[in-house]
Amino acid sequence: MLAALAIVLAMMIGMAYVLKKYFYRSPGTINGNPMIDILSNHYLGPKSSILLVNVLGQVMLLGVSANQISPLGTISDPKALENFKNLRPQHKALPISESLPRCKSLLRNIGQLRRGK
User: Which of 3, 71, 62, 74 is closest to 38 using CA atoms?
Assistant: First the structure.
């Protein structure tokens, strides 16, 4: 019974991965790269923040409040941009080959807990 559940869940996860990978196209991308990328944000108070945004290669500083978005300036100094890129952590998604064994071990642990009760 648990094996059948694991097989069905694995098939659902696999289909979701395939559908997203090959059929989903975000309207805000060019060749898979986003046209707008939020590089950093800083919360200032209730419903207000400052955003550092990359729009088609141009880095802009935006002020965001509950009612409006205001451009505060642009960053065009190449040295400052390079320093910022070095500070920014690079997030990488786990490949499917690493996430499936984790899912399998999680399901195995859940099954052992259910049998132990």
Answer: 62
10-residue mean pLDDT series, the chain (117 residues): 90 88 68 76 90 86 92 86 70 65 78 71
Number of domains in the chain: 1
- Indicate whether 24 belongs to any domain: yes
Is there a domain that residue 49 lies in? no
In angstroms, the Cα distances linking 12 to 7, 18, 19, 55, 71 are: 9, 10, 10, 35, 44
The reported pLDDT for the residue numbered 113 is: 75
Is residue 12 assigned to a domain? yes
